Amino acid sequence: MAGAYRGGPGVKRLTRGGGAFAVSRYIRNTGVVKSTGTPLDGHLPADGRTRESVARLLMEQGPIVAADVAARLGLSSPAVRRHLDALIADGEAEVRDAPRRGPRGRGRPAREYLLTDSGRARFGHGYDDLAVAALRYLVEHGGPDAVEGFAQSRVEQLLGDGVAKVEAAHGSGARVQALADVLTARGYAAQARDGGHGVQLCQHHCPVAHVAAEFPALCEAETHAFAELLGTHVQRLATIARGDSACTTHIPLDLPEVRRMNTTTTPGRRPGATIPRGRQSE
Q: What backbone phi and psi angles, to 5 degrees, belong to 208?
């Protein structure tokens, strides 16, 4: 399926292969990826392994009281509470009063611990597989045009009320920065950098790179949306989905040819977008 969907008229190909971008929370899940501190060799330190065991027990047996966690893992109560407090501080666990059974006795009610959605994420989600399966079904029953229509709808939802914020910014550079701020708020960790004869919009996070790699129509819709919103030609240089370290889009600023293009663009016609189709040659 990779590379099966091609861009519309006027989209120039720089390379071969399949280019793509990060699908947002509108497919699910766009929260910024949280590091669990696992070393590159994949081996957790002893403290990390214990916390992993505590988290797994909360997932499998929760809600569960701290005393039961300690008993099942053979740990001391202070050690268990230290790990539970750390999981709560990281937003991976939550605590609540246990339901009462019978008359209430003296002292504080028992407290139960369970994982949050963020805590469950450390054990993996199937969002990528679900999104890919849904889009494969869409193209099978609706054709490539259905995927392109979905891609355009998705990017409109992605930008949402951010469009007004970008349009309200004064000056080309300020508009790019405003767009970076909007994307960052959506979980893309974006920033605007000096790019010599323009600005480079860098998106350092790709929530669903595997989905984007198989369906480049999503990338094309995003890149065209940037061009239309900024009112100028843009050029997608790199994407995380193709193995690059960031999704990078070059936006030329205040160049004579750009000014001419902006003044001659006809109503309803999108400004140009140059979109790569695979990893560029070194």
A: -135, 65
CB 18 within 8 Å of CB 211: no
Q: What is the pLDDT of residues 218-240, one digit of tens each?
A: 888 899 999 999 999 999 999 88
Length of the chain: 282
What pLDDT sits at residue 117? 83
d(CA 167, CA 159): 12
- Residue 106 φ/ψ region, left for φ over 0, alpha for ψ in the -120 to 50 degree band, beta for the rest: beta
Query: For helices 217-230 and 172-185, what crossing angle results, to 10°?
Result: 140
DSSP state letter for 55: H
CB atoms within 10 A of CB 75: 18
pTM, full prediction: 0.58
Give pLDDT, residue 245: 80
CA–CA dist 46, 124 (Å, integer): 21
Q: Where are the beta strands (DSSP E) in 20-156?
A: 64-65, 93-97, 111-115
Place of tokens 């790179």: 209
Q: What angle do CA 2, 242, 232 make, to 5 degrees?
A: 100
State both tokens at 68: 């039961």
**Structural tokens at position 88:** 């709560």
pLDDT, residue 167, reads 95
Helix (H) or strand (E) holding 70: helix 66-73
227 burial (CB, 10 Å; 0-12 / 13-18 / 19+) is buried
**pLDDT > 70 fraction of the chain, expressed in percent and rounded:** 70
Spatial contact of 29 and 125, defined as CB atoms under 8 Å apart = yes
pLDDT at residue number 22:
40
- Judged against a pLDDT cut of 60, whether residue 256 lies above it is answered with no
Average pLDDT score over the chain? 77
